[in-house]
Amino acid sequence: MAKQKLSIKAKAAKARRDLKAAKTPARRAKKAENQRKRRAAKKAGKNVKGKDFDHKDRKFKSVKANRGNDGKGTRREGKKKYKTCSCKK
Questions:
Q1: Is 30 helix (H, G, I), strand (E, B) or coil?
Q2: CA angle 42, 28, 44 (to 5 degrees)
Q3: Quick check: pTM over 0.70?
Q4: In this structure, what are the phi and psi dihedrals at residue 20, rounded to the nearest 5 degrees?
Q5: Contact at 8 Å (CB) between 29 and 84?
Q6: pLDDT tens, 15-55?
Q7: Are 84 and 55 in contact (CB under 8 A)?
Q8: N or C: which end of the chain has fewer CB within 10 A?
Q9: What contacts 24+ positions apart, CB below 8 Å, involve 28-37?
Q10: CA 82 to CA 33: how far, in whole Å?
Q11: pLDDT in tens, 44-67
Q12: How far apart are alpha carbons 69 and 82 in whole angstroms?
């Protein structure tokens, strides 16, 4: 995939937007859950290399399969609230 060709000003603005999005409570919960699941899977001897945890289907998928709502596109998916485990294991 080619890099975006952005001006310096646009690149800085995008970095600020991306960081803001990554720090939302929902995104932080997903990231924390992903780390817990990944560590547990590795400990159990599963190969999770090149895979991401899908918060909708609740299982590990390839990075490609975990993008774009399983081929249906993100437009229909909208701002759906995914279930994240609030417990710390």
A1: helix
A2: 10
A3: no
A4: -60, -40
A5: yes
A6: 999 999 999 998 898 899 889 999 999 999 999 999 988 87
A7: yes
A8: N
A9: 29/84, 29/86, 30/55, 30/82, 30/84, 32/84, 33/84, 33/85, 36/85, 36/88, 36/89
A10: 12
A11: 999 999 998 887 888 899 888 888
A12: 12
The rounded radius of gyration (Å) of the Cα atoms in the chain is: 15
Distance CA 67, CA 84 (A): 18
Handedness of CA 82, 19, 41, 85 (dihedral sign): negative
- 3, amino acid identity: K
What token pair was written down for 57?
């289907």
- For residue 30, the tally of other CB atoms under 10 A from its CB is 15
